[in-house]
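Hey Z.,

So I finally got round to the 1,3-dihydroxyacetonephosphate thing we talked about over coffee. Here's the setup:
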Amino acid sequence: MTARRPLIAGNWKMYKTVQEARDFAAEILELVDNVTDVDVAICAPFTALPVLKDELEESIVHIGAQNMYFETQGAFTGEISPLMLKDLACTFVILGHSERREYFKEDDVLIAKKVKTALDHGLTPILCVGENLTLRESGQAAAYVREQVEQDIHGLSPEEVKKIVVAYEPIWAIGTGRTASPQDAQDMCAAIRGTLTSLVGAVSSQVRILYGGSVKSGNIAELMSQPDIDGALVGGASLDVQEFAKMIHGVR
Ligand code: 13P
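And the result:
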């Protein structure tokens, strides 16, 4: 039943200079130019977006940002608007990453506004949710993530929800080398889909749900073989162009 197209998205976080981004873009195009059955995206720092636009616009590699404000313009020092992202050929934007929630105190009310704004401007939000180790060990992971999803898509219509991508990223698996087992990741992604179904009905079967947290070429295939995992949001391993290309080829 999975007619959902796989999506492999790299999250560069706060890495790569403009020159490094340019080199990566040129190389990845060569390495994946024959890929037609997987969506590929690179979510780069704002400073690297213009060079990615130059190198990747009109290619099979989509461009994404890692954050965005919910207003289109105004006196919001240091923020970036959806119009600015569109101007740089972005089609994706990561929202609600656990690092934004933790270090920049983003809460679900703010994230919900950002998700709505992204959709209003034709950007595809990659909405990140996930529990920390304490919640996981106390058996509250599913309930916690359900609550995050409910709040972050609050007020959206089924047609809008259909367009978002959800990334399940357990905080304890991010950058730690500790991956959720394929079964645990599947259980949580199925729980997220179940939450979506209870909120917006059958369109939940069309929503892509990614897993993120220490994904690399050696574990991506097993994760992606799970019925409710439609792709990966990759941090560290997306910085190496050979490794990133290997992951894209590895899911086909
Ligand atoms: P790592 O792949 O480095 O664990 O990071 C995952 C992540 O946070 C992607 O958004």
